Amino acid sequence: ALLLLLYRPPRYQIAIRACFLGFVFGCGVLLSFSHSSWNHFGWYMCSLSLFHFSEYLVTAVNNPKSLSLDSFLLNHSLEYTVAALSSWIEFTLENIFWPELKQVTWLSAMGLLMVVFGECLRKAAMFTAGSNFNHVVQNEKSETHTLVTSGVYAWFRHPSYVGWFYWSIGTQVMLCNPICGIGYALTVWRFFRDRTEEEEISLIHFFGEEYLEYKKRVPTGLPFIKGVKVEL
């Protein structure tokens, strides 16, 4: 019996994660309609669970060959987990000692709009890229790998990163978390600066002059991030 628990089939593990995210979403809906200082945390729970579930779902539709348990992004990184826990702790402590700080509805609504915008932009990027989209930066070009420059990629070179950037900061605005709000903004900016440069090195290697021309025409979409510098 112990061996069966340790070696459950992938479909069972997928179902467990999906059910867990559905449970979190349901709890978030209940909190959202509660008349308490936790109602905006309910918005956050709905946003967080929907983000992770949709990451797996869109990957399953777009690029099933790359689909895995990691596609939920629940185990994205230790830093991601620490950031999430920090935001929960900050919200809880401030809600206990300064509950009025968590009832700035117009600020939470602005954060919700940022979250919706970021989520829609990221998923639009994933659908537009199709099988070219992958959660892991690719170091080798596959036979089907093409340079996508249409749709949201005509607006930004990295629309999925732009979406995630504003989504992550929006969650903290929604929670009225001043400390994590600043911390998230600085951390995700640095992360996407490094991630953009890493990815663009591979894209220049894959597509050469075609990508360099695209790079000249279209901005990254991320504030104060221009991507990798190309020596002429």
Automatic annotation (TrEMBL):
Keywords from the UniProt entry: Endoplasmic reticulum, Membrane, Methyltransferase, S-adenosyl-L-methionine, Transferase, Transmembrane, Transmembrane helix
GO BP annotations, alphabetical order: methylation
Main location: endoplasmic reticulum
Compartments, record wording: Endoplasmic reticulum membrane
InterPro entries noted in UniProt: ICMT_MeTrfase, PPMT_MeTrfase
This enzyme's EC code(s): 2.1.1.100
GO CC terms: endoplasmic reticulum membrane
Domain of life per record: Eukaryota
The UniProt record lists the keyword Cell division: no
GO terms of molecular function: protein C-terminal S-isoprenylcysteine carboxyl O-methyltransferase activity
Membrane topology recorded in Swiss-Prot or TrEMBL: Multi-pass membrane protein
Catalyzed reaction equations: [protein]-C-terminal S-[(2E,6E)-farnesyl]-L-cysteine + S-adenosyl-L-methionine = [protein]-C-terminal S-[(2E,6E)-farnesyl]-L-cysteine methyl ester + S-adenosyl-L-homocysteine
Regions crossing the membrane: 14-35
PANTHER family: PROTEIN-S ISOPRENYLCYSTEINE O-METHYLTRANSFERASE (PTHR12714), PROTEIN-S-ISOPRENYLCYSTEINE O-METHYLTRANSFERASE (PTHR12714:SF9)
Entry's family note: Belongs to the class VI-like SAM-binding methyltransferase superfamily. Isoprenylcysteine carboxyl methyltransferase family.
Function: Catalyzes the post-translational methylation of isoprenylated C-terminal cysteine residues.
The protein, known as: Protein-S-isoprenylcysteine O-methyltransferase
Organism annotation: Neovison vison (American mink)
Gene behind the chain: ICMT
